Amino acid sequence: MKDIAIALVALTISVGLLWAGLVPDKPKVFAFPNFWAWALLSLSLGLLVQALARRAVRGVGARDAAAVTDSLTQLAPLLVIGFGYFMLFPVLGFYASALLAFALVSMFYDSLGVAARPLLHGAVSLVFTLILYLIFGVLLGVQVPGGWLF
What is the pLDDT of residues 16-70, one digit of tens each? Predict the structure, then answer.
């Protein structure tokens, strides 16, 4: 059941990305993101088919329901961080909100706990944000949305 939940979340995200990329007036501008949205859609459909086939073979049990509940509990902080990221994105800008989101995700999903090694989480988040800048800002020359920070 955990596989099906993950596949459905990925499917929902890919459909949302496709809708966002196909709605604008200039679809040629969104060719690169649409390519990745179609790739995500096809992979998530494949994952869904694989999960459904696996479920049909082994059956459904009470353990699967507990696994789904556990998965959703582990997924909840990521959903809250993602929602906050999208809310702060227009205000902070791409790089600042990505830095904050990376730091929060790495802190919440660290095996040692939230308070352990905050400087390491900050450094890793800074490196990821720098990699984003090098890929999109320097290598691809993509103009990313800015906020009042940068």
Answer: 877 777 776 666 666 777 777 888 888 888 888 888 777 766 665 555 555 656 6
C-alpha 112 chain-centroid distance: 22
Instruction: Name the residue among 59, 36, 44, 42 with its Cα closest to residue 3.
Output: 44
Q: Is 77 found in the same domain as 111?
A: yes
Q: From CA 96, how far away is CA 98, in angstroms rounded? A: 5
Number of CB atoms found within 10 A of residue 4's CB: 17
* 109: number of Cβ within 10 Å: 12
Query: What is the 8-class DSSP label of residue 143?
Result: -
The domain containing residue 82 runs over which residues? Answer: 73-139
Q: What is the number of structural domains in the chain?
A: 2
Question: Taken in order 144, 106, 85, 40, is the CA torsion positive or negative?
Answer: positive
Residue 122 identity (one-letter amino acid): G
In-domain check, residue 85: yes
